[in-house]
Amino acid sequence: MTQTEDKTSLSTEDTPLVPMEKVVALCKRRGFVYPNSEIYGGVSGIYDFGPLGVELRNNIRRFWWWSMVQLNDNVLGIEGSIITHPRVWEASGHVENFVDRLVDCKKCKRRFRVDHLPAENLEQNKCPVCGGELTEPRVFNLMMETYIGVVEGERMKTYLRGEACQNIYLDYDNVLKSSRIQIPFGICQIGKAFRNEVTPGNFLFRQREFEQWDLQFFVHPSEMQKWFDYWKEYRFEWYKSIINHKDRLRFRAHGPDELAHYAKQAFDIEYKSIIGWQEWEGIHWRQDWDLSRHSQYSGQDLSYTDPETKERYIPWIVETSGGVDRTFLNLLLDAYEEEPPSGKDKEGRTVLHLHPWLAPIKVAVLPLQKNKEELVTTAKDIHNRLKRLMVAQYDDVANIGRRYRRQDEIGTPFCVTVDFQTLEDQTVTVRERDGMTQIRLAIDELPGYLVEKVTWR
Ligand code: GAP
């Protein structure tokens, strides 16, 4: 099964890690991400996505869906609800086990997750910032509570989902019965999850409301290792195909003391950024935990009968679970570059080397001069043709150099310039973002050329 060719064009040599503030500032300035409820002072760990952010998010989601569901005949998709029956979270183990242990510094009042404290501070009960004494650990559940119903006293307490994948187990039997799929097969979903993170931070990295993508792949126990290895590699290659700095990606195996309550084995795909090596996606050996627990708690038999051998068993599950928001953040950290002045660009520029498939705007159409009607009319015609095929922008404000730089800063892979030659021979200049190279192309060839470059295949 092939998913993508590696088409990124940048060299992989190590460049300095991008400071988080640079990306945060760009996101606000150019309309990728805004702090939520900003006019009321904001809410920690919750963000909104602006016009460019939503395009980038949609492209990221679509690329994941394309390579997970569309390319794999044995994988189907669903979209489940955010609120479920509260028993789901008892069965899943989240009510009991989904907790963080916290300590507070008695002197500077800072709060730390015990599992994030350096071993030395933990042993000496000492604050890593001011050296003050730490309190005894306290336990916090991360599930966000909500209520169904309007009548006080009759309202049912439940939870916003703490991990999106639970809907997949809830719908597993329905998918099996309503499609003609047989084990081994997978169910995918992209959806919001909510966690009362005690230490949200690092911009989109650790939020309280975020989006996850999951594959739950159901297998016969004897084939668990084979499929675990298969999806682990598949997901690693997927991430590798969308970043420039390939050497900033690695696997890390979970130690026995850090395994989630449902996992018998787990690997993180990690990315190295300014905040160090951090989890991007988890590959989890969930075994029969989920379907056994839901069978037990619901009273419904979720075992599977093999149509040929008639063997009856609870399927085991390989999970690949990643974050849309972490992908968004890591892609920006990976793509951001401040290029010094050079022969090609005398002023220097900020550029986002985003993969053309994922870039929010695919092409900008620019008349060389705004005050020449024929240039403007032709450029608007081209823009109208292109915007039916891809996200295209028309821009005639400021000189051409500034307009190129504005597009570079948001990662637009191609700029099409309509100049005086266009009026004579119906050709345009196509400028490519990373190398700033330019070619001349007939207007009629433009749609085919660009579609080839900016859509995955
Ligand atoms: N169903 C398994 C599960 O939820 P997880 O490792 O807790 O596993 C999977 O989460 C992915 O979700 C992570 O690898 C990360 O990309 C994303 N994620 C988890 N917590 C997050 C948070 N607080 N903010 C943003 N993304 C988060």
Taking Cα atoms only, what radius of gyration do you get, to the nearest Å? 25 Å
Q: What is the number of beta strands?
A: 23
The helix content, as a percent range, equals: 25-40%
Distance between the termini: 13 Å
Write out key terms for the chains shown.
457 residues; alpha+beta; seven-stranded mixed sheet; five-stranded mixed sheet; 23 strands; 27% strand; disordered N terminus; binds glycyl-adenosine-5'-phosphate
Task: Characterize the structure shown.
- The chain is an alpha+beta fold and 457 residues long.
- It has helices at residues 20-30, 51-70, 87-91, 94-97, 119-124, 166-178, 224-242, 289-298, 324-335, 373-386, 400-409, 420-425, 446-454; strands spanning 33-35, 47-49, 75-77, 99-104, 111-113, 138-141, 144-148, 156-160, 185-194, 209-219, 249-253, 265-273, 276-287, 304-305, 312-313, 316-323, 336-339, 349-352, 363-367, 392-394, 414-418, 427-432, 438-442.
- Strands 3-9-10-16-13-12-11 form a seven-stranded mixed beta sheet, with helices on both faces. A five-stranded mixed beta sheet has the order 20-19-21-22-23, sandwiched between helices. Strands 5-4-6 form a three-stranded antiparallel beta sheet.
- The longest helix is centred in the N-terminal third of the chain and has 20 residues, at 51-70.
- It starts with 19 loop residues before the first helix and ends with a helix.
- Residues 1-12 have low confidence and may be disordered.
- The site of glycyl-adenosine-5'-phosphate has 19 residues, from strand 10, strand 13, strand 16 and helix 9.
- Residues 163, 165, 195, 197, 206-207, 210, 212, 214, 279-282, 319, 321-323, 325-326 line the site of glycyl-adenosine-5'-phosphate (GAP).
